[in-house]
Amino acid sequence: MLNIPSQAFPAPSSQQRVASGGRSKVPLKQGRSLMDWIRLTKSGKDLTGLKGRLIEVTEEELKKHNTKDDCWICIRGFVYNVSPYMEYHPGGEDELMKAAGSDGTDLFDQVHRWVNYESMLKECLVGRMAVKPAVPKDYHEEKKVLNGMLPKSQVPDALAKEGPVSPSYDWFQTDSLVTIVIYTKQKDVNLDSVIVDHQYDSFRAETIIKDYSYLIHIELSHAIQEDFSVRVVANVGKIEIVLKKKENTSWECLGHPLENHNSLIPKKDTGLYYRKCQLISKEDATHDTKLFCLMLPPSTHLQVPIGQHVYLKLTITGDFVSISNPEGNFKIAQFQELEDLFLLAAGTGFTPMVKILNYALTNISSLRKVKLMFFNKTEDDIIWRSQLEKLAFKDKRFDVEFVLSQPTSEWNGKKGCISPGLLSEFLKRSLDNSKVLICICGPAAFTEQGMRMLHDLNFSKDEIHAFTAS
Ligand code: HEM
């Protein structure tokens, strides 16, 4: 089954577009649409020229395939022959050729991390990159760890020096429970920091520590029940995952290590992990915006931290939606001692503001003022208008202003687009030297213009957070 992102995704006003800058799609030749590509991939044609074989590709070999007619690209360790896809690529052949014969992961992620290349290029898979031993000479793996079965962290010393200290883990059991303990060796961990999934034969617990990801990835030796609990002892940086045994037998070992088990990897080098969610409800937020409510499987522990987002994968013929691990670079520390919070949103750029608003008004005791300036075309486009007005009525720290670019003659609120005039009037500090944060989210052009205007108004980099897809 193919998981295909719709050609219109993300919507033109989505924050995922924000990082794209001046990118543009190219007109595709007739017969080169996404549907045509799907048809070709299902036709049974040999798209790699390898008659279904998968090979191990060395760097030297990869480099040789660097022409339009013979173009291989490596993404996250897998090599694809993209020559057949060349004319179907919405970004054009020249863009795709930028990664010809090389590792295109970074480039791909910079442009469109959400694109489901694994599924789209399934028939173009040539094989895996041959692994080069990248371990420094003075590194030698210790064979045994607590409970005697799992290799110690595979973090080379060199990486450990640059990034955080590698976490470690242990496990213990009672008759009915198995507890996995992760010692993060960091103080600022909380329930957002760990994402746990138990799917098929794989048990996966990913702990996010700064820009790194520490993974426990095991095929458990015995069956467990669907649900489990996760606890965090924040002051000692300990995370406990308590699993319920299906049968009250004693486990001799936790299980077999799977890929990247017990390793600390920079987050940017890990792929997005998805789990299938059930669609619980779908409501109209406005005439062209819908609110989807999804339910995580009981065998998943995942919380989206404030200011972060997830990617969705829809299966055209299926009745579920897959959601990814959270991504984003908003840091809750930006709220520390905050006195004035200004939110600038355009269209669906309102999305991250909802959680920020909620968190700020309930948790930041130093906060004096929160103001949202919400840009839309018409009154009908304003998402959750009455809720925002009610909130402003209830909480005197909060104010909202709607600005319309195509208002009717009855509209007596603010009109126009983002401008230095509107901003300088809106962004008044409550005190001369109050600590401010300005969050901005909307289509790329809106965010870019807004950022320029904010710099011209002398707000510093630390006072501005722009939501972008990168
Ligand atoms: C690694 C080199 C690549 C570069 C530099 C690149 C660049 C681009 C650019 C500039 C666009 C137009 C962006 C826009 O929507 O405004 C685009 C769109 C797209 N590319 Fe790529 N691309 C690359 C690889 C790939 C690969 C391997 C796939 C695999 C299937 C792919 C699939 C797509 C799709 C589906 C779109 C349309 C996305 C949308 O509608 O938002 N690209 N690409």
UniProtKB/TrEMBL annotation:
Residue stretches making up the Cytochrome b5 heme-binding domain: 54-130
An annotated GO BP: superoxide metabolic process
Domain CS stretches: 164-255
InterPro entries: Cbr1-like_FAD-bd_dom, CS_dom, Cyt_B5-like_heme/steroid-bd, Cyt_B5-like_heme/steroid_sf, Cyt_B5_heme-BS, Cytochrome_b5/Flavoprotein_Rdt, Flavoprot_Pyr_Nucl_cyt_Rdtase, FNR_nucleotide-bd
Top EC class, one word: oxidoreductase
Protein source organism: Pipistrellus kuhlii
CDD domains: cyt_b5_reduct_like, p23_NCB5OR
Biased composition (Polar residues): 1-18
UniProt name for this protein: Cytochrome b5 reductase 4
One function term, GO molecular function aspect: metal ion binding
Alphabetical keyword list: FAD, Flavoprotein, Heme, Iron, Metal-binding, NAD, Oxidoreductase
